[in-house]
Amino acid sequence: MSVADAVREYVHDGSCVYVGNFGAQLYGVAHEIIRQRRRYLHMVAGSGGIMLDQLLGAGVVSTATFAHCWNAIGPAPAWNFRRLAESGANPVRLREVSLGILGAALQAGAWRVPFAPVDIPAETGYRAEDWTDGMLATVSSPFGEATVVEAITPDIAFVHVDRVDTRGNGVIDGPHGEAVIAAHAARRTVLVSEEITDPATSIGEASIPGVLVSAIVVAPGSVRPDGTSRGYPREVEAFAGYSAAAASQDGFASWLRRTLAELP
């Protein structure tokens, strides 16, 4: 299965889509979602970065749940995100959370319960200014009151792994972040791997067990221009070039046309 096949089969208009990872972000998946003109998606990402910025600018997103959205090489904003946030028009529901809140929401989704408790100081913007746009609530129980976050259960999770065996057991060499929890929370999980290996090589080291996996995509370089912890470095020049191009809407539109034209 190719990235294009996986997006075609598992991403539909209106879907809730997690695209990983925490680092090693799947730009190949994001660009394919844009190319296939999906719409009204709820995108979930821990480190949103310019990947989420590109999805926002392309008009495929109706809701975004994210821990941050910036250009990692800075100092430069994620321009499409900034334009959306400052416009006041609110065409996209932006739900900003901490990584801890996101992990708890996905854990609740994995457990198939409606919410999970979180410890959030009242003076933070998550509560005082409702950055989460309604994801938090206070509940009472015989054991006391607690702040809770609503569960996130993605329809599909795309998770990058450094290698996967023929049984679907995937290994992440770098930081896991929320990616493993997202695979447990999602109704379907697609692993996008740098390589495929014999099952005997993954015994005892799988980050994500094959029982959770609906499909495997072997696509070396699928996180470029980002990098992997051991495979290849981030392409800093590409991040800088994107920042310069996306500073205006016309510049972003030109950049997007060129990028989509270069997809395999």
From TrEMBL:
SMART domains: CoA_trans. The keyword Protease does not apply. InterPro entries: CoA_trans_fam_I (IPR004165), NagB/RpiA_transferase-like (IPR037171). One of its GO terms (molecular function) is CoA-transferase activity. Keywords: Transferase. Pfam families: CoA_trans. Signal peptide: none annotated. The keyword Transferase applies. This is Coenzyme a transferase. The lineage of its organism: Bacteria, Bacillati, Actinomycetota, Actinomycetes, Mycobacteriales.
